[in-house]
């Protein structure tokens, strides 16, 4: 193991430039793709000629060997053309299909609906095409009574592009029978509702999106903003409704895309606000544009007690108590917490100790000692939580003399215990661990609890890193990195193009380098 | 989607390439058959039969079933993977799957199986034609194999598969009287998805086979069996005679606690801390029969804790250098041969041969060397460093390794 590791290090040192390293890496991954096959090759090379002989082309493809047959060829041709953005050729093929005497197959109808949806994004549909969509809706429902998910999705998109939102509601119910509607189905429906000035329905639908875990896409936000500007002219009223939109974003801890962020910026600028793309200083939480500090949204008492009630059952007990611990141990732990709480800080001792690797015990002891000293100097009451095998470490008892300490069995899990200890102890208690606790957050199951847990974690988690000899103890975030409003305006995070391409370590905090700062111009 | 499709069609192309002319004819013929000769009404009749059989008058279920039928039909028509024929039990499984993605994955699995069968059939047909045209020649796996038959005169009676089967069963029966008991705990069916249950049943089949060809087999008990469950159904598919009273395997629907004294039992689980240092011929070892690809909770640890049993794990780190990232939970068809060999020889190094080599460091190093050799990126010095790592001389192919690890189960010379 060590030999390979050393060699790998050598290997990496050879490439100082990150770029050349990436080139090298891509050397291994970008093996030639086997994505050509005779049939698809023909379909992909259908070129600009809009009146080619479709029957001949189909026969050409079918006589080649492959997975396409008479049954699916129409749909596949339509799909390929639409995917390749050759809409004009696709339209001519659509005409060919409709003029041929054969009855259209379900797959072909789906393909046509998809084509019209794509076409309607940039152009107006002719009456004939609109009629086709309506007819498809009627005939399909006549024939089958209930439709399957993919047909429903296609139908819903097409109907939305001709503003038939009432029919879409029925289709949505059908989708729910065998699955959850897709992101784009929800978003396009919300967008259509706003387009047709149905505000209440649209808001109801966007709440439903959140319940189904389908955050809105750009098109929905776009139509929402357009609706506000179409409907209202007075600047105060406009502001009120734009705020409503921003509150929707912040309440659901959503992160919008760069396109929507730009649109929001423009619309606020229209109201004579200052809009800027900015960065947040991760250490202090100040906006680089307006120098204001973002708020720390503390958990309210009610919220915290909700977290407190759930944490033991969700994290330690779970589906089977024996998976993580045993009943005796849990009892022992609860008695201990009753007796010794509250604490100011709870240490995940094993996590801290193993930041220096598993080799040297004295190193581990040193790190734990430093961390304990650090908090002891602040006159904080410390609980150290570890496993029983740690007691065998040399001098360990001496190091932990100033702390409360609790040790669980070697075959039990320590993470649920230290989180539970901290939350049960009270709202001010912090934790120290380098773990991002994503798995434990997932175990909270309900979305609301997950969000509360995340916010609690941002405010209370210290981390220990040992980059060189001296351990670095990193304090918790001073602000809450979600969209928020303060006295002067809004701060909203967005997903920039850079984050998508650069890639970074996911440390649970939204990217601090891409925020939108919206400020009311001071009236001087 | 199209990339996948093209990829799959590429994968199956080489099969057809060898006999290109013939296979193409056969290929198109097959498709023709499936569409022309099965009339539309017949298919619909069959589907109606499925509806009545599966839904039994439940209106909601029938509605869902019809939607799924439509979903599959749409998938067929717009070029996604869906098989032409779906059996009754496959429909039932489709009905149970909650999400669209899961159904799509299952359907594409079925589609691939269907295509593979079609190709196998075509290949077989092509080979048959080739065989008819070519003169007969004798096929021998090894040069000193005996050839039976009228023309090949042989002194010895032919030993048929059935006789070998009897002989092996006899050994297993002997073990049932005199052998040491080993328990396989089949209580994890609820924690596995269907795919995993199928795999577990397959592993169980291997366990039975590997055990009885060993020269000193265990007396196998499978406990906590749900006779109506999917696991037993699959096992019956693999070994049709498993429920016969004479079959040399103990099947208990009760817990192992009812069969054996509690202080003799030792649960083998990879999640505990104690290592099994020596093999105790008096203990009854329990192996959990589960495939934990999806759910990786320490289920067997929890079970042993709940029952208050002794626990142990194999000393894997002590004897082998493991590749980073490889899991240390083993299949039951590795566990049982390990225990068999351990009892026979008491030699851990020898017994742990049954662990798949892909999990070990040496394989990772070899793969790395190979990868660096194949690249055109010239960095000779780095290669030299890598060359320094000793490479195993007698590198065996996968089949050879498999043969070697199985051979010692019944071969005296190798012990």
From TrEMBL, chain A:
CDD domains: PIN_PRORP. GO terms for biological process: mitochondrial tRNA 5'-end processing; tRNA 5'-leader removal. It catalyses: Endonucleolytic cleavage of RNA, removing 5'-extranucleotides from tRNA precursor. It comes from the Eukaryota. Coiled coil: none annotated. Residues 282-517 form the PRORP domain. It is found in: Mitochondrion. Its EC number is 3.1.26.5. Keywords: Hydrolase, Magnesium, Metal-binding, Mitochondrion, Nuclease, Transit peptide, tRNA processing, Zinc. Its cofactor is Mg(2+). Signal peptide: none annotated. GO terms for cellular component: mitochondrial ribonuclease P complex. This is Mitochondrial ribonuclease P catalytic subunit. It comes from Vanessa tameamea. The gene is LOC113399672.
UniProtKB/TrEMBL annotation, chain B:
It is found in: Mitochondrion. The keyword S-adenosyl-L-methionine applies. It comes from the Eukaryota. Coiled coil: none annotated. Keywords: Coiled coil, Methyltransferase, Mitochondrion, S-adenosyl-L-methionine, Transferase, Transit peptide, tRNA processing. Residues 168-362 form the SAM-dependent MTase TRM10-type domain. PANTHER family: TRNA (GUANINE-9-) METHYLTRANSFERASE (PTHR13563), TRNA METHYLTRANSFERASE 10 HOMOLOG C (PTHR13563:SF5). This is RNA (guanine-9-)-methyltransferase domain-containing protein 1. Transmembrane segments: none annotated. The keyword Coiled coil applies. One of its GO terms (molecular function) is tRNA binding. GO terms for biological process: methylation; mitochondrial tRNA 5'-end processing; positive regulation of mitochondrial translation. One of its GO terms (cellular component) is nucleoplasm.
């Amino acid at each position: 193991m060590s030999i390979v590791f050393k060699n790998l290090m050598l290997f990496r040192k050879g490439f100082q430039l990150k770029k050349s390293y990436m080139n090298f890496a891509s050397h291994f991954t970008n093996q030639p793709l086997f994505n050509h096959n005779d049939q698809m090759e023909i379909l992909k090379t259908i070129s600009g000629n809009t009146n080619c002989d479709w029957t001949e082309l189909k026969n050409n493809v079918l006589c080649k060997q492959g997975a396409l047959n008479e049954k699916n060829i129409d749909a596949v041709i339509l799909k390929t053309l639409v995917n390749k953005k050759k809409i004009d050729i696709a339209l001519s093929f659509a005409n060919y299909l409709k003029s041929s005497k054969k009855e259209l197959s379900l797959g072909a109808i789906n393909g046509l609906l998809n084509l019209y949806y794509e076409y309607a994004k940039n152009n107006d549909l002719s009456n004939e095409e609109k009629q086709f969509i309506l007819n498809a809706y009627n005939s399909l429902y006549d024939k089958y009574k209930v439709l399957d998910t993919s047909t429903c999705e296609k139908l819903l998109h097409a109907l939305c592009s001709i503003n038939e939102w009432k029919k879409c509601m029925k289709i949505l119910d059908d989708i729910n029978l065998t699955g959850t509607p897709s992101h784009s189905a929800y978003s396009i429906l919300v967008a259509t509702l706003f387009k047709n000035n149905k505000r209440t329905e649209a808001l109801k639908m966007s709440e439903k999106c959140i319940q189904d875990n389908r955050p809105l896409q750009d098109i929905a936000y776009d139509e929402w903003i357009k609706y506000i500007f179409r409907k209202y002219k007075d600047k105060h009223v406009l502001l009120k409704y734009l705020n409503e939109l921003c509150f929707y974003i912040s309440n659901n801890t959503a992160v919008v895309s760069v396109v929507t962020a730009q649109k929001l910026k423009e619309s606020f600028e229209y109201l004579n606000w200052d809009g800027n793309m900015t960065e947040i200083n991760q250490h202090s939480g100040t906006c680089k544009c307006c120098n204001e500090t973002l708020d720390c949204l503390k958990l309210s008492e009610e919220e915290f007690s909700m977290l407190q009630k759930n944490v033991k059952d969700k994290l330690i007990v779970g589906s089977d108590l024996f998976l993580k611990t045993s009943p005796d141990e849990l009892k022992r732990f609860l008695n201990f917490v009753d007796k010794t709480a509250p604490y100011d800080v709870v240490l995940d001792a094993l996590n801290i100790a193993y930041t220096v690797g598993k080799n040297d015990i004295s190193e581990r002891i040193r790190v734990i000692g430093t961390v304990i000293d650090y908090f002891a100097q602040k006159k904080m009451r410390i609980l150290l939580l570890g496993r029983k095998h740690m007691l065998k470490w040399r001098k360990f008892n001496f190091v932990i003399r100033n702390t409360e300490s609790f040790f669980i069995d070697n075959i039990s899990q320590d993470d649920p215990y230290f989180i539970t200890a901290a939350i049960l102890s009270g709202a001010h208690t912090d934790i120290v661990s380098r773990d991002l606790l994503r798995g434990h957050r997932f175990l909270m199951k309900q979305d609301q609890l997950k969000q509360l847990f995340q916010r609690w974690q941002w405010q209370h988690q210290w981390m220990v890193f040992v980059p060189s000899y001296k351990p670095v103890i990193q304090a918790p975030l001073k602000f809450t990195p979600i969209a928020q409003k303060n006295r002067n305006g809004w701060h909203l995070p967005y997903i920039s193009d850079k984050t998508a391409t650069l890639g970074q370590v996911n440390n649970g905090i939204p990217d601090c380098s891409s925020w939108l700062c919206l400020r009311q111009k001071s009236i001087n | 989607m199209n990339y996948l499709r093209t990829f799959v069609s590429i994968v199956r192309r080489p099969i057809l390439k060898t006999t290109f002319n013939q296979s193409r004819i056969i290929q198109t013929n097959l498709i023709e058959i499936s569409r022309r000769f099965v009339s539309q009404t017949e298919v619909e009749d069959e589907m109606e039969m499925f509806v009545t059989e599966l839904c039994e008058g439940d209106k909601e279920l029938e509605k869902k079933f019809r939607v799924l039928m439509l979903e599959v039909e749409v998938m067929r028509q717009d070029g996604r993977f869906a098989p032409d024929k779906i059996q009754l039990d496959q429909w039932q499984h489709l009905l149970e799957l909650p999400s669209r993605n899961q159904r799509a994955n299952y359907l594409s699995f079925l589609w691939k199986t269907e295509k593979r069968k079609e190709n196998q059939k075509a290949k077989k047909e092509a080979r048959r034609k080739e065989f008819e045209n070519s003169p007969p020649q004798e096929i021998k796996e090894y040069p000193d194999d005996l050839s039976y038959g009228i023309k090949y005169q042989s002194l010895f009676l032919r030993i048929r598969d059935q006789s070998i089967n009897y002989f092996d069963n006899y050994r297993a029966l002997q073990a049932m009287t005199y052998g040491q008991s080993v328990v396989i705990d089949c209580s994890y069916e609820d924690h596995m998805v269907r795919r995993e249950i199928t795999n577990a049943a397959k592993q169980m089949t291997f366990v039975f086979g590997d055990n009885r060809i060993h020269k000193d087999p265990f007396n196998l008990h499978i406990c906590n069996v749900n006779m109506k469950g999917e696991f037993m159904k699959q096992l019956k598919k693999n070994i049709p005679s498993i429920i016969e009273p004479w079959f040399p395997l103990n099947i208990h629907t009760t817990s192992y606690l009812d069969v054996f004294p509690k202080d003799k039992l030792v649960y083998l689980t990879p999640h505990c801390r104690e290592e099994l240092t020596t093999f105790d011929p008096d203990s009854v070892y329990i192996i959990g029969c589960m495939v934990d690809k999806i759910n990786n909770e320490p289920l067997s640890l929890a079970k042993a804790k709940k029952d208050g049993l002794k626990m142990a794990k194999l000393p894997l780190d002590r004897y082998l250098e493991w590749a980073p990232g490889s899991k240390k939970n083993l299949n039951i068809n590795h566990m049982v041969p390990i225990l068999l060999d351990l009892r026979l020889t008491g030699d851990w190094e020898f017994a742990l041969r049954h662990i798949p080599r892909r999990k070990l460091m040496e394989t990772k190093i070899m793969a790395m060397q190979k990868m660096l050799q194949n690249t055109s990126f010239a960095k000779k010095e780095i290669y030299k460093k890598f060359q320094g790592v000793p490479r195993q001389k007698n590198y065996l192919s996968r089949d050879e390794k498999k043969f070697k690890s199985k051979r010692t189960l019944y071969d005296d010379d190798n012990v």
